[in-house]
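Let us begin with a simple case.
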Amino acid sequence: MTAGRLFSLAGRQAIITGGSRGLGLQMAEALGSAGARILLSARKADELAQAVSHLQGLGIDAQALIVDMSRPDSVAAFADQALEVWAMSTCWSTTPAPPGRPRQPRTRSRPGRNSSTST
């Protein structure tokens, strides 16, 4: 078995947030080269268009959606749009928020972690 077959992502989809440049675009190239269809998201339409064009020039099936992931209301809308593009995603990759744009705090608690019980 070849490495290409062993690590093939053919038939899979990858959603990459912050994928228009830098590490996100490199991740898109790697996953796309392994056969995954790519859906990029970022805030800047012109950079997304360049990234999609670059990926398609490499023979990668790539699409993009404009979204600002630092806004919680945008995340749900993005998920809905992504599901319209593809019936289901199978791989997610996120890149960290740039300096000066803190991530939103997690608000979901785990059951049993925040409750106190006496015995």
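The second case is a distinct protein. As before, the sequence precedes its structure tokens.
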Amino acid sequence: MIVVPGSLALGYAAVVVLVLAATLVAVVWLLWGIARHVRGIAAALRDVERHTAPLASASATLDESLLQLADSLDRVRGHLAAAESHLAPPPAPVSPSQSNAALSREGR
């Protein structure tokens, strides 16, 4: 075991206390800066909440309007499907060889 004279031990203790005090001051300084930024973020979020508050009533109206539009589009789709069922089927596609045969019959 190393024996340290009393004045040297007090010097070491003073250095340790100073280092701990400096570290605590640095931590407090950083926490103060963080708190300042958090307060700024909180203020910005309050502004966002205040500016978007009118959207709550508008979104309900918009939602209702979009539901009515969806119902109307469903009815249109039903009418189009009914109209399609009354139409004649489209003619079968003509292949190039059939097209050439028809042209040769016509003398072209």
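The chain has three helices and no strands. The helical segments are 6-52, 55-86, 96-105.
Keep these points in mind for the review questions at the end of the chapter.
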